[in-house]
Specification:
Four copies of one chain form a homotetramer. Chain A is α/β, with parallel strands linked by helices. Helices cover about 25% and strands about 30% of the residues of chain A. Chain A has helices spanning about 45-50, 55-60, 145-150, 150-160, 180-190, 200-210, 225-230, 245-255, 275-280, 300-310, 325-335; strands spanning about 5-10, 20-25, 30-40, 65, 70-75, 90, 95, 115, 130, 135-140, 170-175, 195-200, 215-220, 235-240, 255-265, 275, 285-290, 320-325, 340-345. In chain A, strands 3, 5, 6, 9, 10, 18 and 19 form a seven-stranded mixed β-sheet that branches. In chain A, helix 4 (about 150-160) packs across helix 5 (about 180-190) and helix 4 packs across helix 10. The longest helix of chain A is centred in the middle third of the chain and has 12 residues, at about 150-160. The interface of A and D includes residues 102, 109, 275, 278 and 288 of A.
Chain lengths: ~350, ~350, ~350, ~350
């Protein structure tokens, strides 16, 4: 398709981004072109917008940013099979090599040689997006574009939460950013006996309550170890999902977990973390899982099942919606801490 | 404790039972005596009452029958540690050897040398019951005696259902007797995307709906394979729980299951079952698990968590309540097919 | 590549096959052309050669048969990435759809819509073979072509055997055809405490002994249940691999397995099988897994590791080697029962 | 039994121990008395002998030390069932509560309220030892007392090693103390493709080679990350068993492990450990398991199977044998670093 479109572009090194007119991308034979219906802002987009150290090292402007999307296929490359114009889709943002050990053994989310849409090549905050057909996911027509665009980050939460045995178990979610909030809802939907949601931000804890938390704890005011140990009859929780990226939070969590319990880490820690491995991990017989990405496509099937069945209602996590022209307001909301997910419409 | 009590006694070979006065049992040093608050009738009790072939081969009258119970400890044997008069308890009805390979590796429910309360020695349909302390389970005081007495059969359903991966999966429960009905509720509580409940009895299907079935199917009127395959987009269900004891039902279920799916059998089949193993099991890559009993005590913890949290509400399955004097009406209800669980009070 | 080659062709409906000159296949852009170094005869090839009911229903002559192969790439299609002329390869014989639920969740061996090389399209008993690049497996140069050609059937045995917990466990392999013999060796390499090999054919049991069987049992002469129960102190085996396709063999195996044990079925049964599910599966708490194909590519990595490390030595299973011109002798050996694997060289 | 016996006694706070005559212990009704045939010195005994901080805080002299033992029952308490005079036994040294969540769910090795033989009450470095019957393990008569006494520490290695998927996998064992050496042998017996053994002590690496290591690496001379990455084609190992208790060793190991790999920690670290969790655990998708003790009795069954079958030959790890009178030489050997296990005979 020829013509112009608007896009949010990181046009130069440094903070900020601009909305500008660019060419509609020309697809290759293995690609499709998607007409964007809704997108959402990821923490990664915020890093790029704010131009932190990670972004400065990784990003090569100019770049159309964004990777969380729902839309309709408007053009199909010549070698693409199984997809048609009009199909309603979202996308997995990791483009994998397909040939390494991990890719060939069902662990493509751990591919050694992957690139990311909106990070390593042009993304989706635009009227149209060019996407490799291998990365497409078919949406049910009953799923709204806003929610459909969230499946990528919900998938992180699904992989983290459902890598644990949840039904009849007590679960603590540490850190109620968007992925933590999704995890609260997923753990509740998967039959956790109790979900404890912990954060330092009452706004987010309020959303956690709506997502199904049995108890919300503001760890700024409260001794979270005391509260959880008392409420679990001094046993501790079965499952501890660490999503705060905060060293103290992690260390505290290892004090309120049950002997033999399970810990999942879906966090980026700004520095090294100092742990009392002997007492907190070895003698407690813990299992700790580092989690990243989404299983292709097992995690997507689970995510879609949770959303299509209505078991997981993420409407409370969508706190802001803007047309793309007002994207600056979206990034302000993201930076404020008083937000969940921010939707941008083309 | 000395004195007399009333008890439901299988007093001779043949159908029926009698309510009569017997001695309160004298406890041994490893036993406790429980004052019974509520009991429920198991299918096993019905076999004994009706005096079928199994009962005629196994039961040696006179015998106080019954094994599903909630009550309070009123006397504690001299060697018992950790239990006191006044403790509110239920019991695991399998008395295990404690020394075989299975008992020593966390599989005591598969003990080679076990005996059953109310089958191999006197049971609980009485004012008082003598029970080995090793078989005690402590109830939360907030749990009603009626529901607490059901934890043994609910445990069968918990072991069967939660031996499968349930969250985000489609589940078919074949056979809506009490354990099937519990399984419907457990699968729903554990986050199944959809639970299909199948039976030939509309009364039971009505209860299944209340327990959280997404769809109920009367297989007498309806082609269950067609219905489920259509509703699952021709994929079939992820999990098939066979609880009917009916050969045709099992064979049909193997036709509406997903390639790579999981089957659990918690059924007694009156005869051998003829299966097309090549096409239905090998080429479909199925896993079939035979399930019996309850894990001691993992299953009990899970059962209690489901009940104490309110995630599993079994009130719809309790269809009849009688004082022990009217036990005959209870057995009539059990034989009618138009019943769930029947509670008897001393 | 243009020119002529010799190939073993099923040229018409009915028993037998012919060696004839045919065109070297023209590759498509997603294919490679392999110069064949060694092939081996599968049971499937024997069905086609003998023209049994299955073959008559499935095969559409003329067809180049065969699918077990090792060779070198001599031509690479225009769209193929990651493969070069000279690469030493074997192939997965299942061509999968890549789009169904199973393909997208790491279960491509259970694809709903697959076709098989040498069954549904031309195979490898020829000088050259055209193969989709998606089906290629890279061999270590130190692996002989004969052994490399066996990785497909060894993979069946690897998937079956290593789907069980083997280390420190007792394992019974029922049926010592080639795949049973591989399984004996794999179970021994994976640290089984004891491997019992059972067959009615002393020739094959002799090979089983060389593959590492702790005990070989000819079930024609011996009460296999008695022997195994006595040798396992009346516990039974932990793992029972049913590879005979014989109903009585399966039924017997369910009598010498440990309560809570694991059964794997990699067999085609000519008829329905009648089982005492209540006593043999439910009350014994067994898990039964139907196994088919090879996981792509997890099973191939495991197979290669076993062969490359020398842990699995399959030389005893290779009983016959012929040039392709003498293929008739190969099929005679396969039909005789006095054979393991038969290698054919172009 | 009345009379006197010799025993190694920690008679006062401070380094050292004495061999002295004490009363033969009087058993309680739930105990047995064992005539000791062989014992071995554990690292825990060395801590007590050397009187480090841990010992000073935990031990209350006078105390008969030691807990690794093989011997014959010579007296049986009045309430003990299933054990007889003459039975040849070893013991699990953890005396558990039997009533906590962990004890009741197959995780008794993680009991909250346990005590240890030879640490919290009198142990086994003596002519006779009093032991609770619940802690007995029956030995095959074909197992030598020396090896039978080692089952407790071998059990630690079995639990650590076999908690991982080992067959066809590459395994690195970091730290070749006795438990590391056992782990090398267990990984080899369980079918690891390659076992890398790493230490700073060539004497121990020499033993590791005899235990089945594919490669031994002295990390004092060699860049262990380079060596392992090169030998694994830059993939890293599947399994990393950290048994050194050294922070640098652990951190290095996280650099030579495969994405998606498994780490087990059976170590006591003298201080907190600083980890780059984001890069080394989260983004690599690792699973880390803290391991302590032995599963009762699953680990014992596996340990016995490895020893009784001859798959695990620990004779190379037994480097010293002394009569109890020369126990001082045993502790000198243990402190020297130039030793494996030291046997003491009464």
């Amino acid at each position: 398709m020829n013509g112009k479109m608007k896009a949010i572009v990181k046009d130069k090194c440094g903070a900020g981004a601009v909305l500008k007119e660019v060419n509609i991308p020309q697809i290759n034979p293995d690609d499709v072109l998607i007409e964007v219906q809704a997108t959402s802002i990821c923490g990664t987009d915020l890093h790029i917008y704010n131009w932190d150290n990670w972004a400065a090292n990784r990003i090569d402007p100019p770049l159309v940013i964004g990777h969380e999307i729902a839309g309709k296929i408007v053009e199909v490359g010549g070698r693409v099979e199984g997809w048609d114009v009009g199909d309603y889709v979202s996308i997995e943002c990791h483009k994998i090599c397909g040939r390494c050990y991990q890719c060939r053994t069902g662990q493509a989310h751990l591919c050694h040689d992957y690139s990311i849409l909106g990070v390593d090549f042009d993304g989706v905050f635009a009227d149209y997006a060019r996407v490799p057909a291998t990365n497409l996911w078919r949406n049910k027509v009953t799923l709204s574009p806003e929610v459909a665009s969230l499946q990528d980050p919900i998938g992180n939460a699904v992989l983290t939460t459902l890598s644990q045995d949840i039904s009849t178990k007590t679960v603590a979610v540490m850190g109620c950013g968007s992925i933590g909030l999704f995890s609260v809802g997923i753990a509740a939907a998967a039959g956790a006996e109790k979900v404890y949601a912990i954060d330092v931000n009452d706004y987010r804890l309020g959303i956690a309550k709506k997502m199904g938390a049995y108890m919300t704890i503001n760890s700024r005011d409260t001794d979270v170890i005391d509260v959880i140990m008392e409420d679990t009859y001094n046993e501790g929780v079965d499952v501890f999902l660490e999503m705060s990226g905060n060293e103290t939070a992690l260390v505290n969590g290892l004090k309120f977990i049950k002997y033999g319990g399970n810990v999942a880490l879906l966090s980026v820690y700004p520095n090294k973390v100092s742990l009392d491995l002997s007492n907190d991990v070895v003698f407690q017989g813990l299992t700790i899982r580092g989690i990243t990405g989404r299983r292709m496509w097992d995690t997507w099937y689970k995510t879609a099942a949770l959303l299509n069945s209505g078991q997981l209602d993420v409407s409370h996590v969508i706190t802001h919606k803007f047309p793309m022209e007002r994207f600056e307001e979206g990034f302000v909301a993201m930076n404020s801490g008083e937000s969940g997910k921010v939707i941008l419409y083309p």
